[in-house]
Amino acid sequence: MRILGVIPARYHSQRLPGKVLLPLRGKPIIQYVYERARQVFGDDLIVATDDMRVVEAVEKVKGRAIMTRNTHLSGTERVGEVAERFLYDAYVNIQADEPFIEPDHLMKLITLLQRHSLVTLMTRIHKLEDLVSPSVVKVVMGKDGRALYFSRSLVPHPRDFPLTSQEVLARYGYFRHIGLYGYHRSVLMEIVALSPAPIEEIEQLEQLRWLYHGYSIWVQEVSYRGIGIDTQEDYEAAQQLAETLL
Fold first, then answer.
1. 11, 16, 163, 229: which one has the fewest Cβ atoms less than 10 Å from its Cβ?
2. Rounded distance between C-alpha atoms, residue 191 and residue 210, angstroms
3. 3-state DSSP of 155-169
4. Distance between CA atoms of residues 81 and 189, nearest Å
5. Is the pLDDT of residue 151 over 90?
């Protein structure tokens, strides 16, 4: 199976414009993502962006980047445009704002793609603040490894415990979604053509569109210490984390 790693890198982020070019220990965030992904994909890796400044930053480190349309509403849509131009059997969507991404996680996605056509990752939640934060997307699983639902709310809701109780975390397994995706080409081209779903619009989570329309998303648990960078507060936390992880 030929698999292309794609890093959708939108420059004009709503909450933190230009975040993929912000420095961590002297290097732009996008460079860390690219270098780590290149360990897995080699030359089968491309950055898809809406801004020449990102292209220039990637090419400066001998990477490969292309301009894509600026009308895409999600990373998956941007990967879909790449799939129109570069024919592979499958594609892995790698978040451009995840400088702490681990190559092993990408390998796990590739392994999952050998068995399933639409895959992603999750990690166990250990902090109560993450459990109740709407910025941390929770995923509920079925026993066969398929996602039942994703939410910014606390699901499943602990009826018999206050939300401030550490016992909730100790007694039950709650999981955070890691926004990496793998898709077979046929499924990718189908899901980018789907109409928006009400639950997607409420939660602002693109993967809910796929569930709404009947697609199965297979999920695997991994250990993860990093963070995605969506806000200035996230960036400041990443600067501290970079001292030990980068």
1. 163
2. 7
3. CCCCCCCCCCCCHHH
4. 9
5. yes
